[in-house]
Amino acid sequence: MKKRINLQRTFNASLDLVWELWTTKEGIESWWGPPGFEVKVSKLELRAGGALEYVMNCIGAEQIAFMKQHNQPLSTPLKARYTEVSPKTLAAWMNLADFIPGVVPYEVETRLMLAPLGAESVRVDLQLDAMHNEFYTSMATQGWEGEMGKLAAIIDQRSNKDKFMSPLIPFLRFNDQAEEAARYYVGIFPGAKMGEIQRFPANSRGPEGGVMTASFMLGDQMLVALNGNPRFGFSPAMSLLFTCASSDEAARLTDQLAAGGEKQPGGWLRDKYGVSWQVHANR
Q1: How many alpha carbons lie under 13 Å from residue 56 in its C-beta half-sphere?
Q2: pTM listed for this prediction
């Protein structure tokens, strides 16, 4: 029997919304693809035996560099076929793994199972067939973990659509301080609030039960803190600009954000996590 990897998440959303995000062209394109990749769907026949065809495009600078280093294409057309579909309950599909140099193409199955836990809560169980070796299995698992983080952000966005309209969601990569940093920012900015926290499942790249992502809202803007790789850090080349209603509020936020970090000229600062900010008053 083929080994399977099990990923489980609970989302605060309606069953209709979660199913839509997994099974429609617009839904899939809004979040499928690991960080640094996007998906464009060309064909979707949601029935047993139906086709799912899409292109996976590499768009992130870090990911582009990795793909080029390993002589991998930046755009990969992929085909799948649905094997089982039960509306709002189950969708299973087969992908052909035909992109691995020196390995005879083979099929892997993905099984999505949804279980409502109430009017606005859904448990998602995702079962992945293991790949032909541990490296590719790990890469596939990490990819889906990252995608689930994107799904959580999209669900938060859709659930707060009357208040939150921005299509841009910054991801801030920390080592193991994602939740701590998110709660720190929420405690500083007026009206900020925590969103959903996603945790590492068993047999994943992170500690089981540890925080994988922590989303939070600053005004109408969602941000996601991600526990990732300690070899990556923040740079002043990328900063977050926050505008305040008054100079007094700007001064207060600057003092709080710079605590443990560093104030810099012109309203710039670096906080204690290394994130660069610009804080200015509207008047």
Answers
A1: 19
A2: 0.59
The one-digit pLDDT tens for each residue of the chain (283 residues) are 678 899 999 998 899 999 999 999 999 998 898 777 889 999 999 999 999 999 988 887 777 888 888 888 899 899 999 999 999 999 999 998 887 888 999 999 999 999 999 888 999 999 999 999 888 888 888 888 878 888 887 887 776 654 444 567 899 999 889 999 999 999 998 878 888 888 888 777 778 888 989 999 887 788 999 987 666 788 889 999 988 877 888 888 999 999 999 998 877 999 999 999 999 876 5
**Residue range(s) in the chain whose domain bears CATH number 3.10.180.10:** 171-281
Radius of gyration for the alpha carbons in the chain, expressed in angstroms and rounded: 20
The CATH class of 4-159 is alpha beta
Nearest to 110 by CA among 90, 86, 93: 93
Q: Does domain 171-281 have CATH number 1.10.3720.10?
A: no
